[in-house]
Every structure is written in structure tokens, then in C-alpha cells.
Write a structure and sequence with these properties.
By secondary structure, the protein is of the alpha/beta class. Helices cover 37% and strands 30% of the residues.
Length: 316
């Protein structure tokens, strides 16, 4: 029997992510203008970005005020002073970006609340704009994952776009109506490759629903992988075959009233160029598929994938 394991599932999609363990699978005038500007600027910021109630983050507010003040000084300065102010402006903007990136996951409403309006952002030097959040409207394919941990669980929302992958964080109303595979238009504040959204109901528009694909035999490929620093093989291919295509398949068959079951194959073990000290499921999945393809596996014949691997930095 395969040792106890936990799973992170790509909900209602063609991919599951499995974690199977071995033990478990200038001037006075300018200064005066700045003093007058700051209360108005922060009021404008808060009014411009309506977000659900969030605990104010004083450091985020202070850095935003500093950025606006420095931006105003930079605009009023002569060329020589502009050159002197630019490094400081860039330093504040970078520090603020790092803070907002950290807030985006746990307090996206605060990111929305202190975000710079588009006109203020546009007035910044290009090199500073590059490290300042921007309001972004973008379309792509939605991917929803669920991490099931020993203690607690969480949903992850990812948007696949022509500009890359964006992780979505909702300030309110986490999605209960969105599905993996749907094509959506999202509006939010971009901080690096993260989008802070006000809510799933106001910030996400479904353009095309995901097609139903959960009935009947689900052609599944199980890929066994281990890591560059941990090449252990905690169970055999035959054990994985039995757990997925007998035990799990029978469970799905019974609980779907005979409508869904699993068929397919198990391949591996493959050692991939990823350390067990990191939890990067996207890279893991990509490298696992590449390893399977390199041995002649035709991925296009499968609609679902399970990635099984020894214990690593993932806590689910």
C-alpha cells in the first residue's frame, strides 16, 4: 500500500498536482507646495481606488507619500537636480514595490487602496514606472488550484496570458463561480507578476466558459519525478499504478455514481533539474512533461496529469 499522501488538485481541469511522500507521498515654495500636496494626494489615491475595507498599512502609506512628494520635486526641478533626485526616487519606488508584492498575497485590498492613479504613474520617469504598480486589464485562460495541507488548505488562481502567468489575489468575494479553463478578462493592480483584485464579481468577466470534460474515462498520465538533490524512489511504478488506476479510480467511479473513472499509464522515475528545497509546482510540471517526452511519451494522448514526487518544500 502506498504511504499516506496529500494532493494539490487542478480543479476541473486536465491536471492534478500530486505530492506523494516517501515517509508520506529645491526651494521653499516647492517645499510648501509639497506640504499642501500630500493630504490631497493621499485622499485622491483612496478615492481613486475603491477597495473593500482593509487594515491600513502605515509603511505602505508612508512610502506612497514619499514617492508622490519626490515625484513632484523631480517634475519641478532643473535638469541637474533631476539627475540628483532620480536615484532616491528609484530607491523609494523599489522599496515600495517589494512591500506591495508581499502585501498582494495576504492583503490585496491594501495594494488596491494605495495604488497610484494612472496619471501620477505616467508622470514618473520610465525607469521608475517600471517598478511601480499599474492598473491592468488583460485576458487569458483561468487556472484554479487547491492546496490540501496537513493543517488547512487554500485555493490558488492563475491567469495564463500572452504576457505570462499572473497570480490573482482577491480582496473580497473569493471565487465560487469561476472554473478552470474559462477564458476571462481581469482588471486589477499589477505588482510584478501578481494582480491584486477588488473581488471576483467586479474584477473578473467571463468571456467563454470552460467546456465540461469530467464524464467517462479520464485518460491520465502519472509522471514520477524526483529532484537533483533527492533522487529517492519511495515506491514502485506498480504501486503508483495500483493506487491511481484501481484505488483512486474506484473511488471516483463510486462517488460519481458510475460516471467518471481513470485510465492511463505511469511513467518514470525521472530526475529533474529542480531542488527539493523549493516549492515551484509550475516548473516541476513543465520539467516532468519534458522528461516524459524525452523518453518518447506522447503527451497529447492524455487529458489529465498527475505529478508524484518525494517530500520537498511544499507543505501540501
Amino acid at each position: 500500500m502506498l504511504p499516506r499522501y496529500t494532493l494539490a488538485l487542478r480543479l476541473r481541469t486536465s491536471a492534478w498536482l500530486g505530492h506523494w511522500h516517501g515517509a508520506r507521498l529645491g526651494s521653499g515654495l516647492a517645499a510648501l507646495c509639497l506640504l499642501c500636496l500630500m493630504p490631497w494626494a493621499m485622499a485622491e489615491l483612496i478615492q481613486a481606488h475603491e477597495a473593500p475595507a482593509s487594515q491600513p498599512n502605515l509603511l505602505a502609506e508612508n512610502l506612497t507619500q514619499d514617492l508622490v512628494a519626490l515625484s513632484t520635486r523631480h517634475q519641478l526641478a532643473d535638469p541637474a537636480e533631476k539627475a540628483q533626485l532620480l536615484p532616491t526616487l528609484l530607491t523609494v519606488a523599489t522599496e515600495r514595490q517589494q512591500l506591495l508584492a508581499a502585501l498582494a498575497e495576504n492583503d490585496p485590498g491594501e495594494v488596491v487602496r494605495v495604488a497610484l492613479p494612472a496619471d501620477i504613474r505616467a508622470s514618473l520617469p520610465p525607469v521608475v514606472q517600471a517598478v511601480v504598480e499599474e492598473e491592468l486589464e488583460i485576458e487569458g485562460k483561468l487556472e484554479i488550484l487547491h492546496e490540501d495541507r496537513d493543517v488547512g488548505s487554500r485555493y490558488l488562481y492563475v491567469l495564463q496570458t500572452t504576457r505570462g502567468r499572473f497570480v490573482l489575489h482577491f480582496a473580497a468575494d473569493p471565487s465560487t463561480h469561476l472554473e478552470t479553463g474559462a477564458r476571462v478578462r481581469v482588471t486589477g493592480m499589477r505588482v510584478e507578476q501578481t494582480l491584486a483584485l477588488s473581488s471576483s464579481t467586479t474584477s473578473v468577466q467571463t468571456l467563454a466558459s470552460a467546456l465540461p470534460n469530467t464524464f467517462g474515462a479520464q485518460k491520465t498520465l502519472v509522471i514520477l519525478v524526483n529532484f537533483s538533490d533527492n533522487a529517492t524512489q519511495p515506491y514502485t511504478v506498480a504501486t503508483a499504478q495500483s493506487v491511481v488506476f484501481t484505488t483512486t479510480s474506484n473511488f471516483d467511479l463510486e462517488n460519481s455514481y458510475g460516471q467518471t473513472w481513470l485510465t492511463g499509464d505511469v511513467v518514470g522515475w525521472y530526475t529533474i533539474a529542480l531542488s527539493s528545497t523549493v516549492c515551484d509546482y509550475n516548473t516541476l510540471a513543465s520539467q516532468a512533461k519534458s522528461a516524459a517526452q524525452a523518453t518518447g511519451v506522447n503527451l497529447s494522448t492524455y487529458t489529465r496529469y498527475v505529478y508524484a514526487f518525494p517530500s520537498n518544500a511544499c507543505t501540501w
